[in-house]
Write a structure and sequence with these properties.
- Helix 1 packs antiparallel against helix 2 and helix 4 (about 135-145) packs parallel to helix 7 (about 285-300).
- The chain has helices spanning about 10-35, 65-100, 110-120, 135-145, 180-185, 260-270, 285-300, 310-315, 320-325, and strands at about 5, 35-45, 45-50, 60-65, 110, 130-135, 145-150, 160-165, 190, 200, 205-210, 240-245, 255-260.
- It contains nine helices and 13 strands.
- The protein is about 40% helix and about 15% strand.
- The strands form four sheets. It has a five-stranded mixed sheet with strand order 6-8-11-10-9, covered by helices on one side. Strands 2-3-4 form a three-stranded antiparallel sheet, covered by helices on one side. Strands 5-12-13 form a three-stranded mixed sheet.
- It is α+β, with helices and mostly antiparallel strands.
- It has three domains: about 1-105; about 105-260, no CATH class; about 260-343, no CATH class.
């Protein structure tokens, strides 16, 4: 298979972006862990220190003004000021790199997806609770492969995430949800009553949540409601892959993608291309994405070996798909072309 290899400058950008993004997210997490605010409040002629929980001003008293509460307030103000200063510095360095991403023609995703990913990452929900699946994951796979092999499929009009079954507690001690994060980012997000696995905002951007049957029962209350799909089980197998990429925009945004094991994603995509229930216009893309990805894994991703141990894990539903790909890696065809449904 022919790749468009990343040149030295592109590889430098990839390395710098990841390092600067990690530094920025680390500071952003520390800042987010601080209380929303600490403020003095006067009541009956006395000052009380209140810990403010949110933008509405809800808070809890930490006691009347004293040497102890003065020290608490001073330490909080100093920490917050230092973290804001550090965040400005790390973001400045990061932004100095992101502006070169688009001219360098590196893999990218949509701005909307990037914003969601950053917010999930700050809350430590990305990778732990949710994986990026679908076309958006392929930006990370191409970065890992060190070259382009799926030109023309950077951004999509929707964003697919998969539930992993791991709960993450929010600041209130309640299990955080993807939907609650979306609502905090933009109040126009609503769950589609006709397709409860999908949320949409006023810009008609769509986020779909998928789930494997084995983890669907662990979905937290108030979450988007995915339909349990057997094929999602495969995407929970193996070793996750994560890379930092940029969004397509005049003001690029860096974001981390945590995607399923590329071997299982490839087999999943090829399997989808043989399903009659899959839209006919999506099957050719699925077949090509899956076949090319598995070739890239075999040639350029030593961390995900296609060996006897992996082959022994392949379930019966996927064995014919894998055998056909192995016989002719670049000749794999979707249902409706020259191929027949796998048995």
């Amino acid at each position: 298979m022919e790749y468009i290899d990343f040149n030295a400058e592109q590889l430098r950008l990839i390395g710098n972006l990841e390092m600067q993004y990690d530094a920025t997210i680390s500071v952003a997490r520390s800042l987010r862990q601080l209380p929303y605010n600490l403020k003095w409040h006067q009541s009956a002629g006395k000052e009380y220190l209140y810990q403010i929980r949110n933008a509405r001003g809800d808070g809890t008293s930490l006691g009347p003004r004293s040497a102890k509460t003065d020290a608490i307030k001073n330490e909080y103000d100093a920490n917050k000021s230092d973290l804001k200063r550090r965040l400005e510095q790390t973001r400045g360095a990061l932004n100095g790199t992101t502006v070169f991403w688009r001219p360098a023609r590196l893999p990218a995703i949509s701005v909307e997806a990037a914003k969601i990913l950053v917010e999930l990452d700050i809350r430590k929900m990305l990778g732990d609770s949710y994986l990026v699946v679908g076309t958006n994951a392929f930006a990370a796979y191409e970065i890992e492969a060190g070259g382009r092999f799926l030109l023309g499929w950077d951004a999509t009009e929707d964003f697919d995430l998969a539930w992993t079954g791991t709960l993450v507690l929010g600041n209130s001690g309640v299990s955080a949800t993807l939907f609650s994060v979306l609502k905090e980012m933009d109040s126009t997000w609503t769950i589609n009553t006709e397709r409860t696995f999908q949320a949409r905002n006023a810009k008609s951007y769509e986020v779909e949540l998928l789930s494997a049957p084995s983890v669907s029962a662990s979905l937290p209350k108030g979450e988007i409601s995915p339909i349990p799909l057997m094929e999602q089980e495969w995407l929970l197998k193996g070793k996750k892959l994560e890379r930092v990429i940029c969004a397509l925009s005049t003001k690029p945004i860096a974001a981390r993608i945590v995607a399923p094991d590329p071997r299982w994603m490839a087999l999943h995509k090829m399997w989808l291309s043989r399903q009659a229930k899959r839209k006919s216009d999506k099957r050719p893309k699925d077949a090509r994405q899956g076949a090319l990805l598995l070739v890239a894994v075999s040639e350029r991703m030593p961390g995900w070996p296609i060996d006897k141990a992996f082959e022994a894990e392949i379930p019966s539903e996927l064995k014919p798909i894998y055998a056909e790909w192995k016989k002719d890696p670049l000749g794999f065809k979707p249902l409706g072309a020259t191929a027949k449904p796998a048995r």
